[in-house]
Design goal:
Layout lengths: L9 H10 L22 H7 L4 H11 L7 E2 L10 E2 L1 H7 L3 H9 L12 H4 L2 H8 L8 H9 L3 H11 L3 H13 L1 H16 L6 H9 L3 H10 L4 H12 L8 H5 L6 H9 L10 H8 L4 H13 L3 H10 L9 E5 L4 E5 L1 H7 L4 H14 L8 H10 L4
Antiparallel strand pairs: 1-2, 3-4
Protein name: Ankyrin
Organism: Piromyces finnis
Length: 385
Amino acid sequence: MVDYDNINSKTDLKQYFEKNKIQVKWIEGENKNFLNYIENDILINFIEKNASLEIIEYIIVKGYSTLNYISFNNKYMNNSPLYNTPLSCALQKQRYDISDILINYGAEFNSIPFDNLHYIINSKNLNYLMTKNYSHIPSQLINLLIKNDYNDILNYIFELFIFNKEFVLKLILCYKNNLSFFKSNYQHLIDSEVKKVDFNVSFYKTAIQKNNYNALNILCNNDVRGNKIIVEDICNILKVDFVSRNIQDVLTSNRTELKNTFLNKMKNSKLKFHVNSKLLQCLENTTTYNEDKENITKLIEQNNFKELKDYIKSNNVSVTKFHFKVFDPKVHNFKKKDIIGLAIENNVSPDLLNFIINQCLKDDKNFIKNRHLHFLYYALSKNKF
């Protein structure tokens, strides 16, 4: 066991190691696998003891081929993480001088276990990390912030990290000083900024599942992909079959009021963060799974080719996901049919049936692959030659 408290300089460290015949290299195995993965990591213990920079650097140089490893915290308590990395430990103590050395020797923020992040994510640490020009914020971090209601920090990341004042100033200076460079590199600069956060539907799904509408509004206000993609992502969540999804319980038990309940939560005046009115209007014009299902059923029953085609296109409907209840007089009960079965049951025109089949193949190229005989038999049984 190293006597950390009595080592105050690199000289002390050398003397102590020589006296006790300790080699820092012993912390690695023959294949450079860390033997101290479990506990008692020398570097992390020195960081926790607020060792000097010269001690930290000496240990790194003498004993570590990588700093992106995980060490078990044998002093684990409720207010401390179960696992540490050297960088997470330095950030917890807000020792940015040590963090600088670690990063210079290859320590990566992405190597920190995500269970640890809520111990180190705060505005001061984020300010520090943003100065390190990280090119990407992990999606797991965004989801973690949403799940734990760290909405101020979530908003802070977007304000600080994407299209911030420094980026805009850089763009303006580039435009003023080198117009030809600006023209040829403008799109690359924008694309690099957009890629800093990989906005995706999982963010919105997490916010809705966790009933975190502050986070949802923050996402809507900062998603660089634009309103059209945002609305599509939210629609993809609203358009699932809520009979078999837990999101139904989060939003409302009354499926006919699903959209209104959702929008009312987004518009709640008590929320700290509010979404722009233009996006709200787009969402108000969207349809839910059950609205789509009811409208499609009605149009198929009416054999209304034109309106069905327009409805599917304007509402971005994926037709393969629906299951319809169709009464079967042979068994005096209802059976589940997909949209092709519903169309055949209602004796739609060949043009409409052909359109529906093509839509199914567009949504899922394998939709009919293993069921073509079933559809053929079903059509023949309905005298659909």
